[in-house]
Design goal:
It is built from no helices and 11 strands. By secondary structure, it is an all-beta fold. It has one domain. Strands 3, 4, 5, 8 and 9 form a 5-stranded antiparallel beta sheet that branches. Strands 6-2-10-11 form a 4-stranded mixed beta sheet, with no helix packed on it. A hairpin with a 3-residue loop joins strand 3 and strand 4. The N and C termini lie far apart (45 Å).
């Protein structure tokens, strides 16, 4: 007996890949000035930065599920000159991304996000 043309297809697990997630200063990640120099982040229970964070830039490379919504939560560390108040923690940011390929880039800030 043939299946109806609209029969459900067997379920498949989502593929796993890595994407770039940037927390750039220009998206409001350091509202008190300075620039992002560290990120503490997690992507669900699939990936997280080490306990010491990901330091040196505004970019992480998390493991994510492709073709699925992924919740990314992070807090950035902002560096600025001591005479401007010194270093500080930027706002916590939570975003849902939907990656469609490994290597895709997402730019995330407290109020908006974009991707390529």
């Amino acid at each position: 007996m043939a299946l109806a043309p609209f029969a459900a297809q067997p379920a498949e697990a989502s593929s796993i890949g890595n994407v770039y997630v940037s927390y750039p200063t220009w998206l409001g990640n350091c509202p008190g000035g300075g620039s992002v120099t560290g990120i503490y982040a997690a992507s669900g229970n699939l990936w997280s930065t080490p306990a010491t964070g990901d330091l040196g830039d505004d970019l992480i490379y998390p493991k994510v599920y492709l073709y699925a919504n992924n919740q990314i939560s992070a807090q950035v560390f902002c560096s600025r000159a001591w005479y401007n108040g010194g270093n500080y923690w930027g706002p916590a940011v939570s975003a849902t991304i939907y990656p469609t390929r490994t290597g895709q880039t997402f730019w995330v800030g407290p109020t908006s996000q974009t991707h390529n």
